[in-house]
Amino acid sequence: MIRCNSWTPAEVALLRESWAGCVSRDTLLRRLVGRTWRAIIDQMAALGLPSVPQGFVGVMKACDALGLCPRTFWRLVRRQRVMVHRSYSRSSAGHKLVEWDEVRDAVERETSTLETITGAARSRDVPVETLTTWLCAVGVHQRVEGRRRAIRLPSALFDTIVAWGRNGGRMRQALTHGRPMRLLLPHEREHREAA
Question: Domain residue spans in the chain?
């Protein structure tokens, strides 16, 4: 059912409110019963609503501003559960948007709790190759020939593994028996001691 009549004040208010809340295309179509996507886009343009809401940025702009490649950005978005929205446009797909403050906070959370093997080795004054060997020995990391990708692990895990690795007797025992040794992170130890 396509309507040709003008927009009511209630519909205009609903459109403005929905735009501020950055709701999905399908939700907007359900809320504005009888209006086509083309009619909604035309009305948004007539009201002067921008195609990108204030406080949001496109994914590629966010990647550039944060200095991340798109692949790393999408991994971060999944791990940190950042909401991804779509912009309103004449095309059915639209562009993907993220709230700038939310994605910036996610990067800060990630960098404060996770470290790369290289960064962890440098900050703990341990050779990278030694730390990698310890990670492999306890079953946390696996070497893959020909493939180099920076993995990020919790700082607490690195602290535990470095302390464990510096205890030479236990390290040699784990390596000579050829089986990975299960290490407990500090919060797991507390939980086990409480039980």
Answer: 8-49, 124-194
